[in-house]
Amino acid sequence: MWITLFTIILLWFLWYVGNKLWTNSLLKKSATVLTSEDFEPQSHGHDIVDIREPAKFKSKHVFGARNIQYMMLKENHAALRKDKPVFLYDENMQFAARMANILKKDGYDQVYVLKNGFADYKGKVKSNQ
């Protein structure tokens, strides 16, 4: 019983660490990661894309952001201009890292991701609560 529990915990830990390393690796080669303090002033006047679910976006989001779900943006990112900076965020950087990698491969050179996602954002937000 203890061995099984230990094995499950170990596997979860290895998955978690591997996932974090993979996300950081993707981000290093495909985007610039900005802290909350840098994200707000640098994104002003540019495309800010919230790739979370619509319900989370409607509840609370970065002021000036528009919501394009990850799967929709993955299939068709023609709504984003390649010649302008794109600022992405999600809940915890996982999908934003994947999206940044996709955009980089498609020729987007100025991709920025909010460090640690919306959970740590300290700038201006719009809330419907």
TrEMBL record:
Origin superkingdom: Bacteria
Pfam families attached to this UniProt entry: Rhodanese
Annotated Rhodanese domain residues: 42-126
Protein name: Rhodanese-like domain-containing protein
